[in-house]
Amino acid sequence: MLGAALRSTVLLACMTAWLMGQTGVASLSTSSSVSSLAGSTNANNSFSSTCRKLPQDGDWPSAQDWARLNQTVGGRLIATVPVAHVCHDPTYNATACAWFKDNWLTVEAHVYYPAEILDPYFQGQYCEPFTPESKPCTLGNYAVYSINVTGVSDIQAGLAFATQHDVRLTIKNTGHDLLGKSTGRGALSLWTHNLKDMDFIDAYVGDVPYTGSAVRIGAGIMFNDILPVAAAQGKRVVSGTCGTVGAAGGYTAGGGHGSLTSLYGMAADSVLEWEIVTASGVHLTVTPNQHADLYWALSGGGAGTFAVVVSMTTRTYDDGPMQGAGFTVSNSNTTAFWNTVDLFHSSLAPVVDTGVTFTYFIIGTELIVFAAVIPGSEPALVTSTLAPIVNSLAQAGVAVNITSSSFSSYYALYESYFVPTEESTAVGQITGGRIIPRELLSPDSPSLSEISAALEVFINAGFYVACAALNANSSRQAPFTSNAVFPVWRSALLTCIMVQTWDYSIPWDENLERQANLTNIYMPQLEAVTPGGGAYLNEANFQEPNWQEVFYGDNYPRLREVKQKYDPNELFYARTAVGSEEWKENGEGRLCPV
Fold this sequence. Notes:
With 594 residues, the protein is α+β, with helices and mostly antiparallel strands.
């Protein structure tokens, strides 16, 4: 309850700061319409050839300019006040600061606020709870203003303003963002978190050969919002395993894997329509047949680069009973333990091909199968489905003690397995990711032991490994509509992230050194032994030097063409997003063309 109360207090402080900032500004006419603002989108044809403005610039938008924008969007322009200002003079509040210190590594401290993000690297030390009270609280990499988007006209006004004034633009829903895409120094942010419409459709009618059930959701809908409502209607949707992730945002735009992937494919495979606003302010509905190139790019090609998503229509699936299972194997003998990991990996393929998706962790010398998600009503399915793994390990003398539970619905399983884990997982992370092709993990593959050796490097450096085992290319799944899902997913068996929690008890530079070691030492070793692999663009190292190939592969040239067609002036920029190589942040954080 304290967290909810603090959210209200901090949001009120943000709005108060905005109002105070307008004190003394002459009243402005409200006759400036959204359409007139949108009409100025292409007024500056040299937009993409100039650096974005910062507040210290003489031609930064004036207070009157911001006030006019605020009037245009109905008073929903929010000046950023970082939540951790309560830990710094002159607004220090001991009780509030103590709460943020205790909860800084949880989603509760960040995802419900307009400009906050989860990643410590991009938070910087500009305004966080662990620096001295006397240290000034500054914006740093945070957006300067956010528009609390409630509809298309708010988006159009924001796009027009950013274009007219050469202001950096960012898009944010929850800020679940490991790569710093949803924030930027000097930015105007489109905060889509409150686009919460949800409309279930019994029989979809559109321009694709699909007439089953569907749901249209606003860009602000999180999995915590949609999953229980879908379950109440006897339906399920392809989802991630973290409830505060937005369903229609970066998750699906990046492809979207989860515990139903082996049943239904990637989240992007189920998308029927995208409702979007282009960089020039045009409001469109795109489908596999209408603006097909943009539909293709939005469905797996990454968020924050082609258009602003207003809503998404996606297929739903009939719900039903599920079985959940887990087990742990460990061995203090590291050689024996990693041999066990090899056996486990080599026995996964036939299991995921039955529709099962695994989530598991390697922590020290423990392999923890946290959730084997098994479709079906019979508890006996657990034993029969997991038999290839159990038998393989038994031949090596490794006994497996499986615990399992039956659930009436997917959401009941999700609520039991994944919700408690999200609540206990630290969100401030140093993270690398790798998608590993199944051919490298076959029983006779020499790569098995090489992959384990590369993962052991991470374990010895203080990381833990979290993997999902899945099949995103099963003949059991509905035929794919052509989309920009990274092709490596179709031949993948594993997607793994290597995670180390950001440590606020040590000097900042030591965390930066850990990040550098991830980039320069550890990730190259794993990449070297996983040829043909790549990385999930939502769960990866933001410093990946070859990100075009590692995140997008053969799709990149076509994605670049779509980007150029729909955003020729390059209004949309996000780190490691398509086309971002044309831009670079200089020493003061200013975004400039290369």
